[in-house]
Amino acid sequence: MRASRSLSWLLPCLVGCVDEATDRPPREHSLVDHRLWERVEGADDPWHADRPEDIETCGDTALIVEEWGDDVWLDLSTQRCAYVTVRQPLQADVPEGAEVSLRIWHFKLTEWEGIFHLAYQLGRSGPPEWSLEQEVPADSSLITDTWRASRDYAAGDDLYFHLANHGDNSWSLLELVATY
What we know:
By secondary structure, this protein is mainly beta. The chain has one domain (about 25-180): Galactose-binding domain-like (Jelly Rolls, Sandwich), CATH 2.60.120. The chain is about 5% helix and about 45% strand. It contains two helices and eleven strands. The protein has helices at about 1-5, 10-15; strands at about 30, 40, 65-70, 70-75, 85-90, 100-105, 110-120, 130-140, 140-150, 160-165, 170-180. Strands 1, 3, 4, 6, 9 and 11 form a six-stranded antiparallel sheet that branches. The longest helix is centred in the first third of the chain and has 6 residues, at about 1-5.
């Protein structure tokens, strides 16, 4: 009896640390359904004003939904293009301060030299919630990152993903999740 009392304080963290306000462990919420991405152009594209005139925009054939068992992801092929922005409704609420994580895979980036740019943005205006620029060429890589949401976002808000890339490359949007 005495031993179980002395260890009872440890039980909540053995099954997952508990949010004291709700008595529930934090859960992972998927923010995207990769089947719902749609291309946007012109005034609907938050990055349109910065797009160089001579860069070719990716068409619908550059967007490929891949499914393997329960996993679904979006492949973006820049074989014949170098610029794309896609949008979908945010699939879950994201409270300010929630931990947001992403995973993006790309194959070896060997074509051309320059910088690729990736970004996730919520809503039509304001700064991106996440962005990355990196020099090309680059080895194959799994890009992972985690940050805290800068403000509250509601399910249904517009979520944008943007890619500006040099050369014949392939990108896989694997995951965007919030934990709270």
